UniProtKB/TrEMBL annotation, chain B:
InterPro entries linked to this entry: RibonucZ/Hydroxyglut_hydro, UPF0173_UPF0282_UlaG_hydrolase
Signal sequence coordinates: none
Any Pfam family hit: Lactamase_B_3
Official protein name in the record: MBL fold metallo-hydrolase
Length: 618, 199
């Protein structure tokens, strides 16, 4: 744990002592329902809830009886304000060509798509899926789904068309939005060409496949045609527990669907977005794409609820050079930059001069989804977080100006839940930590018996339900509440003063570049080759990505065929870093030994772990 | 970054203060000194870095050549875009300033697809620009380089006065000027720095 505590110059007059934070935090936990009830009052409700929370544990339901329009709470509320004409979204492609749409223009686009979806026969409660990088049209489509009361699931394009297909089927979705092609690292990504057979299969099952940017009319619908519709559709008002959106989250055996409800999620998204410091005058650039919870909550929902401008970029971070993201920050006066620890670790390898003077409008940098080692925190603070002008005195800051904040998030929770809050209870930063628990989240670190542990590694748990407790989740989620609190599956150290130091997964689930990958899903993709008789996937430590998949298998297939199968069935994001072929078929089922072997590979170097592997497989 | 599209109009930079506005298959250039590919050429004043010695484009609008226009006057282009001229000049003793009153103009363009775009020309923060505030302004092209035009600080004041949705600094050669303008202006509008496209 870090010995140093740092208050960046820009936060010098906003930082509070930990004791003050503690008072606010403990009060929020003691009166949890009252706390979230007062937060919920900041949303616009058509009818107020009858109970703040009903049910316990994973079955808790929030703001029951309440009615609200999600679209009104995201976009509509800005109508008639000075924000209505300002850019809501700026979509930028790799060529450097951008398009901005104001809140007013965005609402017009969204209303047309809403009309089209209704005319095409979709009804409130029908699921839609989006398979796209962050683009204006994909965001307008998701907002149209929200306006029409259609739950949606964005699928990360790093997942294969097959994985997208599986998710459309699992959700029983009625429509699918696909960006037909886009540029990445100077190459045309032909999503339509790569996905065509799956899109045809979905179309034959009655799924409306809507293509954006395909340029030719075929059996699928064209997105541009949706914009021709007009009608008098109004934004729907839904029950607080209406399904708003969902994601597939990585579990040991597979990716499994979880769903967030409108009322609780919007309360959490609005509150945490305010607390982390988003304002209407901000331009937010989040490099995490929709399909991952950070990309959904802090690209689509939170900044728009606050009236910020959101910069959407669908190109690669390293094209034409690694200065790309900072060039974007420079060109669009970005004030809040949200990225992953993996990205920071790679940026830190570049010549720092390529970032110089391009960060002058930044106010804060948020790191999401994975532990950030102190040395990389210091790099971020000193290189990206040092502005080229003085903050509060006449001396230029040489060693950091603005906060760099690692925050902990999980798909099941829906929002960040630990971190230093620029616009609420900002305490000194402990480099290497993910800050203190947010007010309203009963975070603890415990041993196997549930007894709190401090200063050493334990399980990161949440002792009470949170407003966006999923309304749909797999059995594993319910089982993770068996001890009366929610086990996140992550390990962490909590310091005596309450700072959280995440330490990776406690189970066999992989954390690759901040993204949670299911080892079981990788194994299934390998077993789809009939010549493979046995397959196991475990995490390998990786200095840049935190972890990468290691595949151990028995069968006739060549190693290249294993890699190919994973890329085709799960996606490039799950590409194994190493493949080990066994000479003898193990007798134990992979699920029986997965967690133990994962533990070995996480705690030991690769050679030593491989030597021990033989012992476990006997 | 190369271009910004807003409300059906694509904005890209050409040269010191020049911009090209692409709209419904036509191009309107303002202060582009090589306007060969422009359907309409608007010039704010007669200076070699703002206007060519000869003009090759079909329609020229300026205070000094082609369809002459003076501040306060307006003209409708054949693509339906309404162009209104606004004063642009330097403050001070008029005999000694680079751009005396009446020498040049800025232009407010109103597009049928919605956007209202203001190219300020070579000007200081003069009171006549307040006339632009009679309707919401979407994009403001603001000279920020100093020396005959506003300094970054003055340019930022101009934006705070007119409150456009988007501000694009032009008329700068040292990027530090554009960045000062950006930093001072960011809280009040969306600033976008565009690279100069030579094509």
């Amino acid at each position: 744990m870090s010995a140093r505590r740092i208050v960046p110059p820009s936060m010098r007059y906003k930082a509070i002592p930990i004791q003050e934070y503690r008072k606010v935090y403990e009060e929020s936990i003691r009166k949890l329902e009252e706390f979230w009830g007062s937060e919920a009052d900041m949303l616009r409700w058509s009818r107020k809830w009858s109970s703040i929370k009903s049910g316990e544990g994973p079955n808790a339901r929030w703001f029951t009886g309440g009615l609200l329009s999600p679209f009104e709470n995201i976009i509509g509320k800005h109508r008639g304000t000075s924000l209505w004409g300002k850019p809501a979204l700026i979509g930028l492609d790799e060529n450097g060509d951008a398009e901005a749409v104001s809140y007013a223009q965005l609402e017009m686009m969204v209303a047309k798509i809403h009309c089209a979806l209704e005319n095409l026969g979709l009804r409130q409660g029908d699921w839609v899926v989006v398979y796209s990088p962050p683009t204006l049209d994909a965001f307008a489509f998701m907002l149209a789904a929200i306006r029409a009361g259609l739950p949606f699931e964005p699928v990360f394009t790093g997942f294969s068309p097959y994985e997208m297909y599986r998710r459309v089927i699992t959700r029983n979705a009625k429509a699918l939005f696909v960006t037909a092609r886009y540029m990445r690292r100077g190459k045309n990504i032909d999503v339509l060409g790569n996905s065509k057979s799956y899109l045809e299969r979905l179309s034959s099952k009655g799924v409306l496949v809507i293509l954006e940017g395909s340029g030719n009319k075929g059996v699928f619908l064209e997105y541009d045609d949706l914009l021709e519709y007009s009608c008098n559709s109004r934004e729907v008002v839904v029950d607080s527990n209406h399904k708003l959106f969902g994601l597939h989250s990585g579990y040991a055996e597979d990716f499994k669907p979880i769903t967030h409800a409108a009322g609780g999620f919007l309360v959490q998204a609005y509150s945490t977005s305010r607390w982390i410091g988003l304002r209407s005058r901000d331009t937010v650039f989040c490099t995490v794409w929709p399909g991952w919870i950070t990309g959904v909550t802090y690209q689509l929902f939170g900044p728009l609820m606050l009236g910020s401008t959101v910069l959407l970029y669908n190109g690669g971070p390293d094209w034409p050079s690694w200065s790309r993201w900072l060039d974007i920050i420079d060109a669009y006066a970005v004030t809040v930059f949200i990225t992953t620890g993996s990205a920071i670790r790679i940026l830190a390898k570049q010549d720092p001069s390529i970032f110089k003077s391009k960060n002058d409008t930044l106010r804060e940098i948020i790191i999401t989804a994975e532990p950030l080692e102190p040395e990389f925190w210091y790099w971020s603070y000193e290189i990206l977080g040092t502005l080229p002008y003085p903050i509060v005195d006449s001396q230029s800051s040489r060693n950091g100006s603005i906060p760099v904040l690692d925050m902990y998030i999980q798909s099941e929770v829906g929002t960040f839940l630990t971190g230093n809050l620029v616009n609420y209870t900002f305490t000194p930063i402990e480099p290497g930590s993910a800050g203190l628990p947010f007010p309203g989240f009963a975070v603890d670190v415990v041993d196997d018996s549930g007894i709190p542990v401090r200063g050493k590694t334990g399980k990161l748990v949440i002792r009470s339900p949170w407003p966006s407790t999923p309304v749909e989740a797999p059995q594993e989620f319910y089982e993770s509440w068996n001890k009366g609190y929610y086990e996140t599956g992550d390990l962490a150290v909590m310091s005596d003063s309450g700072y959280i130091y995440p330490a990776g997964r406690a189970d066999a689930i992989l954390k690759v570049s901040g993204y949670r990958l299911s080892p079981g899903a990788v194994e299934k993709s390998i077993m789809s080759d009939p010549t493979v008789e046995w397959a196991l996937t475990v995490p390998m430590k990786n200095p840049d990505k935190f972890e990468t998949p290691l595949v151990i298998y028995y069968g006739k297939a060549e190693e290249e065929e294993i890699v190919k199968a994973v890329r085709e069935k799960v996606g490039p994001i799950a590409t194994p870093e190493r493949v080990v072929r066994l000479g003898v078929r193990p007798s134990l089922a992979p699920s029986a030994i997965r967690q133990e072997i994962a533990k070995v590979f996480r705690s030991e170097d690769i050679q030593s772990a491989l030597r021990k592997l033989e012992f476990y497989l006997k | 970054m190369k271009s910004l599209r807003f409300g059906g109009v694509k904005v890209s930079r050409r040269g010191l203060a020049g911009v090209r506005l692409d709209y419904e298959g036509t191009s309107i250039c303002i202060d582009v000194v090589q306007p060969e590919r422009c359907d309409y050429a608007l010039y704010t004043h007669d200076h070699p870095r703002h206007a060519p010695a000869e003009d090759w484009s079909r329609v020229v609008v300026s205070p000094f050549r082609g369809n002459r226009i003076a501040p306060g006057e307006s003209i409708e282009l054949s693509n339906g875009v309404l162009v209104e001229a606004v004063h642009a000049y330097n403050l001070g003793i008029q005999e000694t300033v680079k751009h005396p009153r009446g020498f040049g103009a800025g232009y407010v363009l109103e597009f049928r697809s919605g956007p209202r775009i203001y190219h300020m020309g070579d000007t200081d923060l003069i009171e006549e620009i307040l006339s632009v505030k009679n309707k919401p302004l979407d994009i403001m092209l603001v000279p920020v380089g100093g020396d005959g035009v506003m300094t970054p600080e003055e340019a930022s004041e101009a934006v705070k006065t007119l409150r456009p949705s988007i501000a694009i600094p032009v008329h700068w050669e040292d990027i530090s000027k554009a960045r000062i303008f950006k930093r001072l202006t960011q809280p009040y509008t969306q600033v976008v720095l565009l690279e100069v496209d030579r094509v």
